[in-house]
Amino acid sequence: MTKTVKLICFPGAPNLPIFVALEKGYFEAAGIKIDMQTTPSSPYQAEALAKGEFDIAGTAFDNVVAYTEGQGAVKFDVAPDFFAFLGATQIELAIVAQPDIKTVADLAGKSLALDAPGTGFAFVLYHMLEAAGVMPGSYERAAIGATPLRWESVKAGQQAATMTIEPFTSIARGQGFNILDTSTRTLKDYQGGIFAARRSWAAENSDSVKAFIKGYLDGLAWVLDPANKEAATEILLRNMPEIKPGVVGAVMTSLLSPKSGLTPKGAVTIEGIKAALELRTRYGKPGSALTDPHKYIDLSYYNDVV
Questions:
Q1: DSSP calls for 2-47
Q2: By C-alpha distance, which of 91, 92, 88 is closest to 264?
């Protein structure tokens, strides 16, 4: 009997290798079925993963750090045993703002839409704001949820700006909203997206973890093959109808760039992890500096596959 793995991801173009692996049957060829859902927010995702409602999460690397260190938005009596086992994206985060806001400095005194104030992508925003002289405390922070909800809040005029990933960055640009800055300009390396699980679940289901890695990497290799770009674009459009043909080219360009999108071979970059740890040390709750990348990852499953 083929085992079903329950997967929860943030909505976005970086899910393209998963869409491909599902359509091409790569997960089933590896020995598992995937039941995939998207999350409305990082707190919801973390709580559901901790409870065992899902087995694997496509999430920000910083979420693993936050909950390991007891700094997550959801409070647990015992810190959940989350760990990252596979890389997904370097990820390009963009500050999308109302059309009348022209610079990052103009965000002083404004209300900004966040997933949650204490998440890693929020820390990237704080870093970009501070680099432009907009210091913490000089703007309001509104916890809205995942990227689609944040983008809609800006689009509706409820918030001045937010952080987006593709395809929402290109959608916003196409509708006349301003892209004030990007994380790839301000951070040389940043470990954005990863796949995470509970250590206890992974230890009991190592074959499923490895099957997921195999299926995902097959889907990733297919997406990154230049010969498949047109077909990959069609699969993305099928799975994300909110992406319109006029912006899908820009979405694919960002997604296929190793600097701003999918990480070749699903690699985890230690320098990117160090950058995420430095931001949490700076903007997270007071405590000791976070300096050990290996505390939050276990690449043994990945190494067995590749």
A1: PEEEEEEE-SSGGGHHHHHHHHHTHHHHHTEEEEEEE-S-HHHHHH
A2: 88
Domain end point (choices 153, 186, 219): 186
Sign of dihedral through CA atoms 145, 149, 151, 157? negative
DSSP 306: -
37 & 157 share domain: no
pLDDT in tens, 157-206: 999 999 998 999 999 999 999 999 999 999 988 999 999 999 999 999 99
Q: CA-to-CA distance for 59 and 10, rounded, in angstroms? A: 7
Domain contains 49: yes
Give the strand order in the sheet containing 193-198. Answer: 32-38, 3-9, 56-60, 193-198, 82-89
In terms of residue numbers, what domain contains 147?
Answer: 94-186
Query: Do 70 and 26 lie in a common domain?
Result: yes
Whole-Å CA distances, 254 to 33, 90, 91, 166, 168 = 29, 11, 9, 8, 12
CATH value at residue 135: 3.40.190.10
Looking up tokens 């002083």 gives: 108
CB of 131 closer than 8 Å to CB of 122: no
Start-to-end Cα distance in the chain: 25
Residues in the chain, total:
306
Q: Considering the entire predicted model, what is its pTM? A: 0.91
